[in-house]
Design a protein that fits this description.
The structure is a single chain. The chain has 9 helices and 12 strands. By secondary structure, the chain is an alpha/beta fold. It has 2 domains: 136 residues, Glutaredoxin, CATH 3.40.30; 118 residues, Glutaredoxin. It has a 5-stranded mixed β-sheet, with helices on one face. The chain is elongated.
């Protein structure tokens, strides 16, 4: 009897250790806990403040993103229903966006949750945002339990379970890791030559046509201008850096054919190039001499001015 009780006790002890370890486990890199999240109110938060206390629901969005707009009532509903049990954070990605547009969205949808604008791109980069809307849900021990692009039943069920302090399965620990953080674009700058990096997307010319017509027109003007400048200045090393948002090889191929682009283009799947050069506006042209940035252009309305500027370098 003693041996049997001892055996059962050992099994129970092991089970308790496993349960304890799981409750303390974390499937995201520790450094994500301390990334500052600056709210438009001026307050600064980090995930570490909620570790061990309450779950966190983060949603990344843009004011011109139609699915984001469609989901805004859902976001506000979640905040009102669960805000005392789950920390809801709204993150505007600040890509071709503005503070005024964010404020207009707040008023339009009556948003009352804490809102941040990712002005330096650190949050979208660290949390592997690859398209809006982008939902991340963490349990109270900061384990990632949901990652997706839709405010669907799966997300709602997990939020409901977390609000009742019930356990939810973790996602794979590699999802937000930095294991694949190396850039897939290898830029080789010769110190004696001039290089041009043209940052754009495969969709800003048509997707923003109705919601942001000025940006859409600028994207079209930019691509046409860059094509001409590529012919005019063959001594400049031209490279197209395409946003990873809603982009794949097929879309890049279609975009290349659409504008008859002759210089090399790459999808910045890691987002490292966009992040390193602090590109927040689509489109953007960066001119370098060696590896030093000497010019940054975001307005492509005047082709002659563009060519004159490059000629003067």
């Amino acid at each position: 009897m003693y041996k049997k009780l001892s055996y059962l006790f050992n099994i129970l002890a092991i089970a308790l250790v496993l349960i304890s370890n799981q409750s303390q486990a974390r499937n995201i890199p520790d450094e994500l806990l301390n990334i500052p999240i600056t709210l438009i109110s001026g307050e600064k938060l980090t995930l570490s403040e909620f570790n061990g206390k309450m779950p966190v629901y983060m949603k990344f969005w843009a004011t011109w993103c139609q699915p984001c707009r469609a989901e805004m009532p859902h976001l506000e509903e979640i905040h009102k229903k669960y805000g005392d049990k789950i920390k809801v954070l709204s993150i505007n990605i600040d890509i071709s966006d503005s503070y005024e547009a964010v404020q207009n969205s707040i008023k339009e949808f009556g948003l009352t949750m804490p809102i941040a604008i990712d002005t330096n791109g650190e949050l979208t980069q660290a949390f592997k945002m690859i398209g809006t809307p982008y939902h991340l849900l963490f349990d109270k021990n900061m384990n990632l339990i949901h990652r997706g692009h839709e405010a669907d039943k799966s997300l709602d069920n997990k939020i409901s379970l977390l609000s009742q302090t019930k356990a939810v399965d973790f996602l794979e620990s590699s999802i937000l890791s930095n294991a694949d953080s190396d850039s897939d674009i290898k830029l080789d700058f010769n110190n004696k030559n001039t290089s041009a990096l043209f940052f754009t997307s495969t969709w800003c010319d048509w997707y923003l046509k109705d919601s942001r017509p000025k940006i859409s027109k600028n994207c079209i003007n930019a691509q046409n201008s860059i094509n001409e400048l590529h012919k005019m200045f063959p001594d400049i090393k031209w490279t197209g850096v395409v946003s990873r948002l809603w982009a794949d090889k097929k879309e890049l191929s279609s975009y290349t054919k659409k504008y008859s682009i002759k210089y090399p283009q790459f999808i910045d799947t890691s987002n490292n190039v966009f992040y390193d050069y602090k590109v927040k506006d689509l489109p953007t042209l960066i001119i370098l001499k060696g590896n030093k940035v000497v010019l940054r252009i975001v307005d492509f309305s005047n082709k002659k001015k563009l060519s004159d500027t490059l000629r003067s370098l």
